[in-house]
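dumping this here before i forget
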Amino acid sequence: MERGREQDHAAFNAWKYRHYFEFDSVKIHSAWESFRRIVEKIPTKSGVKLPQRKSFAGYLEREYDIMDANLQATLGEVDFVSTTADIWTVNNKSFMGVTIHWINSTLQRNKAALACKRIRGRHTYDVIGAEIEEIHSSYGLHGKVVATVTDNASNFAKAFRVYQPCNLESESENEPTFTDVIEPLSTASGDGQFSLPPHYRCASHTINLISTSDVDKHLNSCADTKAVYRSSIAKCTALWTKASRSTLASEQVEEVSRRKLMVPTSTRWNSLYEAISRIITIPLNELNPLCVKLGIKCLNEREYQFLKEYCTVMKPLTVALDILQGDECTYGALLPTLTSLMSKTLALKDDLSRMTASLPDVIVKAIKTRFDAVLDSQEGLLAAATCPKFKLRWLIDECRREHVKELLTTECVTMLIPAEMDFFDFENQPTESFSAEKEVTDYLRSGYELEILNQFPNLKKMYMKYNTPTPSSAPVERLFSLGGLVLSPKRNRLSDRRFEKLLLMRYNHCFTPKENKKT
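structure:
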């Protein structure tokens, strides 16, 4: 039997080596065909088969100009857009990345990258504000950007706080001030005064802060959990370190768990949750012999139970993160997600031991504190209410339901009345109000498919306005991930502008001529 197996193995190897070059040539042929199609697009001089480097560079410039023109033309037809912004540091260089998002007339979400621009010096609020303003201006977005989403960094927060449009109503009206009208119009804004759109903080980053900072602070300050939390995480860390640094240890872990352990990263909190979840899939009676074999401390039953309860409590947070970071997620999903997150977290209390029984209350309190400005915001309520799959179903309190219904009606009236007619508002208001109430009532009684918005033109416009922002700044982080592929070690001599153009062309491939012909 053993001899027959050896003969089969030898026969397979002989076949493999005989056909190796055939397989390899297929790979080479496939790569060559792709390269040849690119080269054929580049115009060359008569009699020259391959383009020169300058010809190839010129081709890239022309393709970029076409892509940029197509993008600008598309954005010119859009009424509402939102942007996400962040700063990426790589190879001792910093880049400001900005992505743009909008909803078209067929209710499909669209996205593009506007910039991945090199910025020099310190990342102060005024530098950030000026860069975002310049990028928005270069695409003619003034009056169209309903919000810009960033993380919770203090420099971004200050930029949007300082450069918000002046609220004239808050200024003192006791004493009139007379100013030469010509002077402000003829004087350049030397002090860099400009205004930025409304600022939305990244919900995913905020949930990450709750999962790390708030939860960690509670577990380290509570007498019932401090010791077991520290000891269990320390033993998990020892296991991750051993398995990641030793091939033999990694193989031994894989033999027991049938899967490799995941090692948490500092930038993604849910990686810690996933790493701990992978450990507790191994039964304790198999995990501890493995720890003995690897020469690390074993988990006791109390520590193992704590890890299981920790994952139980934190799971709703990971689900919320996955929802809010989705490509198709709209701003209207934020409040229903937070509401569901709080209710599902509190529902876990009865199944927890004394070690973690207080954790759900801590998480819910942190959500209410960190999302205080969002939970009752008019923009968030209208965004959720104009999403057919949510409407008012996620609102438990009847008073809040009536309040949001009134908001919908009021906003719908605003959509019905043209701006120039609003000035002469004498007696048409009751008719417009009745029409708005009927549209809202009919909408709330209709189905939950997105397409039903086509039956309600004013609510459709509201949906496109309030759901244009993304609840997370994940899109710009994905731009940076793509940037890491473009700015590879072998291409580190790319100029900053050439790198930006290559990255934008790759991200905005749907705006190239070939793709446009297909659509």
